[in-house]
Amino acid sequence: MHYSESAAARAKVAKTVMNDPIELARQRLIVALDVPDARSAMRLVAELEGTCSWFKIGLELFVATGPAVLEPIVARGHSVFLDLKLHDIPNTVAGAVRSAAAFGVRMLTVHAGGGPAMLTAAKAALAGIAHPPELLAVTVLTSMDGGQLLATGVDRLPSQQVEVLAKMGIGVGIRGFVCSPQEVAAVRSLTGPEGVLVIPGIRPAGAAIGDQKRVAGPAEALRLGASYLVVGRPITQAPNPAEAARAILEEMSGAL
Ligand code: C5P
User: Fold this and answer.
1) 12 in a domain, yes or no?
2) Using CA atoms, how far apart are residues 161 and 240, in angstroms rounded to an integer?
């Protein structure tokens, strides 16, 4: 195909995507593959193929399988968010970030609680890497409420602590954050449109809340300023995961 034809074809596809609210929603829904082994993960990926295009690999799966689980998911053309929530001394985190960047993942998490020196080292570790993952700083886990936070010595509301951590991250050049739906509007006002805000704690109407504390529905989280939604159990433990994902995409599309 002549270059200009292929560019025109690409532009046409891009225009179709831009006009398709379900496709737009699909690009912003990340399914958390919180399963114990590669077999269960690949079964879910196969069931959700064609419906979802982003998958999050977290500690449960990564500790069980190591990086081997990433390759087949990336090879199938999916986007991978590696949620390792790194939290260690700056030198150790920088090394882990460099190692993780080699896997071709598109997002990677570190804990904002590691402090400005750790965040700076993590960011510096990505300098010069072609197509680096988006570095996301996890603020306060969505499973934490005021009581849990106080037990760790932090005498602030979760919303106040999220703002403290987000401001600290922005101060050292971080633009990606993970927070709950309840803080997303405040964090968005700090980052502006450049911020990449990845939001777990999403529960469609009627879904079990489980161990999450600060939750919201998919459409509401988007309206509040989320860039991406992370959904685990409401999809992965549904009797029909693809159907559950389609219902969430439908709800998201109404807010886009
Ligand atoms: O099953 P559920 O939808 O609650 O899964 C949420 C996912 O988001 C889990 O994989 C969890 O590790 C992750 N997460 C979170 N809170 C954060 C960061 C990540 O729940 N602050």
Assistant:
1) no
2) 37
What pLDDT score does 16 carry? 61
Q: How many domains does the chain have?
A: 1
Domain that holds residue 132: 23-253
Residue identifier of the C-alpha nearest atom 12 of ligand 1: 58
Residue 238 DSSP one-character state = S
Catalytic: which of 85, 123, 167, 213? Answer: 85
Amino acid sitting at position 252? M
Q: What CATH number should be reported for the domain holding residue 91?
A: 3.20.20.70
Name the residue with tokens 């989280």.
221
- Contact assessment for residue 152 and residue 100, using Cβ atoms and an 8 Å cutoff: no
Q: Is residue 18 part of a domain?
A: no
Question: CB within 6 Å of ligand 1 — which residues?
Answer: 32, 34, 58, 83, 138, 141-142, 178, 200-201, 210, 212, 230-234
Could you give the C-alpha distances from 108 to 19, 101, 131, 134, in angstroms and in order? Answer: 29, 8, 13, 6
Q: Has 85 been annotated as catalytic?
A: yes
At 158-216, the pLDDT tens digits run: 999 999 999 999 999 999 999 999 999 999 999 999 999 999 999 998 888 888 788 89
**216 within domain boundaries:** yes
The residue length of the chain stands at 256
Any domain includes 144 = yes
Separation CA 216–CA 222 (nearest Å) = 10
11: how many CB neighbours lie within 10 A of its CB? 10
